[in-house]
Amino acid sequence: MRPNVWKTAGNVLGFGVFVWTIAVSLVQAQDSTPPVRVFIFAGQSNMVGTHSRVADIHRFPPFAGLDQPQPKVLFSYKLGREEMTSSNGWVPLQPTKDYFGPELSFGHKVSQNIDAPIAIIKVASGGTTLGEDWNPDQPGGFKLYPLALAHVRDSLAEFDRQKIAYRIEGFMWHQGENDMFSNDFKPQYERNLANFIASWRRDLHTPELRFYLGELCTKTIWGMDNRDNMLAIRTAQKAVAANDPLVEYIPTSHDAVEIGGEEGLHYHYGTLGQLEHGVNYAESYLRAIGKSNTKARPLPHWPYPPSSPIKLFVLAGHRNMEGERAFTAQLADIPEATALANDVPQIAYRYSLGGGFKTSHEWEPLGPAGAYETFGPELSFAHTLHENLQGHLAIVKFTHSGSQINDWTPEGTRAQDLHLYPSFIAFVRDAIKDLEDDGHTVELAGIFYHLGENDMAYYPYRQEAAKWLQSTVIQSRVDLQAPQLKWFVSQQPPPTEPGVNRIDITANLAAIAATDPAFIHVPAFDLPAQAENLVLDARAVIQLGKLLAKRYLESQHPK
User: Fold this and answer.
1) Contact criterion met (CB below 8 Å) for 380 and 545
2) How many CB atoms lie within 10 A of CB 243?
3) How far is CA 95 from CA 75, 118, 217, 447, in A?
4) What would you measure as the largest C-alpha separation in the chain, in angstroms?
5) Virtual CA dihedral for 149, 151, 153, 154, nearest 10 degrees?
6) Is 80 left (phi over 0), alpha (psi -120 to 50) or beta?
7) Crossing angle of helices 421-437 and 459-479, rounded to 10°
8) Sign, CA torsion 194/200/205/206
9) How far apart (Å, rounded) are the C-alpha atoms in residues 461 and 467?
10) Cα 380 from Cα 399, distance rounded (Å)
11) Which residues, 6 or more positions from 481, have their beta carbon under 8 angstroms from its beta carbon?
12) Residues 6+ positions from 469 with CB-CB distance below 8 Å
């Protein structure tokens, strides 16, 4: 007779009491308890959670505590390749050794928003392909499709033995980074993915099973040196989602990624990125079942007198303008910044973050509005202007931390789905028109752009960065019909690794400013010391906003 897997697995990891309690309570309350909602997570290294660190979770306030077991969520997993790590049955949801994947934050968020028990089954293996390892028809390599199917079936069999009702609710898939390197697998990815989905539905007898496809992260170095390969996989995934109403494509390229050495970007999400990755899946699932908890932040009243003139300030950029690692909760620990946590109804604010991942509902009061309880330089920027500037001001912000500078150029690249320039210009035009339609005279005070951080870590992109940016500046003045439109371009200290340091990006930007009086170069070289390259923490983001505001005020009263 097989040992009771609930007790055995739990005792192995020291949590048998919790798991057994869940099982017993489900059995006893069978008539009144909803079926267990089962979610399957599968993929390669970014689904495994490679380069995430459990010890770092506490650094990110919205996710504090997720290093501990979640006894209300059951977890069964097999991870790895030659020697797989296994839960050996059901355990409470918890990190797998010293790393974790998107399941931690997913389980936490979903369990907070639905009144039903949750179980997660995960099989993931780094460096594997859909064309071979995950192939349902002719599995090769590590033969992960039959292995994953057997693990799912074995895990569910324990529910059957315990007479616990369940239903398979969703399948979260993050994979494709290795198929893009194969001339055989890359062009077949769309067909292979559609077949993969159909095979799971057939083999699990779930013809209506929903799939959630996580976008490959363009913020990594592969977003630059494998840009076309990434485009091919992304295009295939989007096509599958477009052709199947039960498949959703989940944007994740704006999420945080692990920082490597001096050279910059790793290939993996890392700690913060994995936590955000799971939130993306959870929010998509909750929307699908009508449980979205997005809260609107309406203005209590229109803050400007009728027909009054308004100065409109446009903030734009990438990860630090978005505020990737500046958390609202940290404002309480910065005495001079505690007021930034409060909404300012006197300043209307409009935004598009992550390339449209999160957008404002019309105009909102200025305040923290980041996708993951974060904020950007707009808070300290607007507060500084509000204290020192006469008249009325409004703020709009357009960012995509998963973009590169060439995505912002008028011509874009072959990756047209990442082409930001048209939507950026339309966003600014719409804001101006909306204010004018309300009777206001609008002065476009300037565009405040923080130089792309990721581009600085890769030589070919750093080499072209100033030229790309200049083309955007020039064309924006034409398209916004503002020939003297000022661009305030801030720049943090670039990486100094020899491979990229051959390009003096600071000198290149200064050269543009020397010939274009409406191009204001803003070196931000005195920001607080940072724990990691490229990314700014809350204190530095606050300082950046103040610096940009100060530079604007100085430009109004030149010496």
Assistant:
1) yes
2) 10
3) 10, 16, 22, 43
4) 87
5) 160
6) left
7) 30
8) negative
9) 10
10) 17
11) none
12) 405, 408, 449, 451, 489, 509, 512
**Fold agreement between 23-69+99-288 and 311-556:** yes
Find the angle CA(472)-CA(259)-CA(69) to the nearest 5 degrees: 125
According to DSSP, the β-strands at 118-124 and 70-79 are: parallel
What is the total residue count of the chain? 559
The answer to whether 426 touches 292, Cβ cutoff 8 Å, is no
Instruction: Calculate helix-pair angle for 5-13, 16-28, nearest 10 degrees.
Output: 150
CATH code of the region 23-69+99-288: 3.40.50.1110
Q: What is the Cα–Cα distance from 478 to 71, expressed in whole angstroms?
A: 58
| CA–CA distance, 41 with 168 (Å, rounded to integer) | 12
Say how far apart CA 197 and CA 537 lie, in whole Å. Answer: 40
β-bridge mates for residue 74, sequence order: 92, 119
User: 56 exposed, middle or buried (CB, 10 Å; 0-12, 13-18, 19+)?
Assistant: middle
Torsion (CA) 219, 223, 229, 234 in degrees, nearest 10? 30
Query: If you search the block for the tokens 């539905």, which residue do you land on?
Result: 201
Q: Which of 88, 118, 103, 115 is nearest to 43 (CA)?
A: 103
- SS3 call for 297: coil
Q: At what angle do helices 270-288 and 103-113 cross, to 10 degrees?
A: 40
> Under a CB-based contact definition with an 8 Å cutoff, are residues 417 and 234 in contact?
yes
183 Cβ contact partners less than 8 Å away, ≥ 6 residues apart: none
What does the domain layout of the chain look like in residue ranges? 23-69+99-288, 311-556
Phi, psi of 40 (to 5 degrees): -105, 130
Closest to 70 in 3D by CA, of 48, 37, 103, 41: 103
Helix (H) or strand (E) holding 190: helix 189-203
Q: Which CATH number fits domain 311-556: 3.40.50.1110, 3.30.300.130, 2.70.98.10, 3.10.20.90?
A: 3.40.50.1110
Residue 98, Cβ neighbours under 10 Å: how many?
A: 11
Per-residue pLDDT in tens (0 to 9) along the chain, 559 residues: 222 333 333 333 333 444 545 554 544 445 567 999 999 999 999 999 999 999 999 999 999 999 999 999 999 999 999 889 999 999 999 999 899 999 999 999 999 999 999 999 999 999 999 999 999 999 999 999 999 999 999 999 999 999 999 999 999 999 999 999 999 999 999 999 999 999 999 999 999 999 999 999 999 999 999 999 999 999 999 999 999 999 999 999 999 998 876 556 888 999 999 999 999 999 999 999 999 877 888 999 999 999 999 999 999 999 999 999 999 999 999 999 999 999 999 999 999 999 999 999 899 999 999 999 999 999 999 999 999 999 999 999 999 999 999 999 999 999 999 999 999 999 999 999 999 999 999 999 999 999 999 999 999 999 999 999 999 999 999 999 999 999 999 999 998 888 899 999 999 999 999 999 999 999 999 999 888 889 999 999 999 999 999 999 999 987 6
Between strands 91-93 and 70-79, the pairing is antiparallel
What is the DSSP pairing of strand 344-353 with strand 392-399?
Answer: parallel
* 8 Å CB contact between 297 and 361: yes
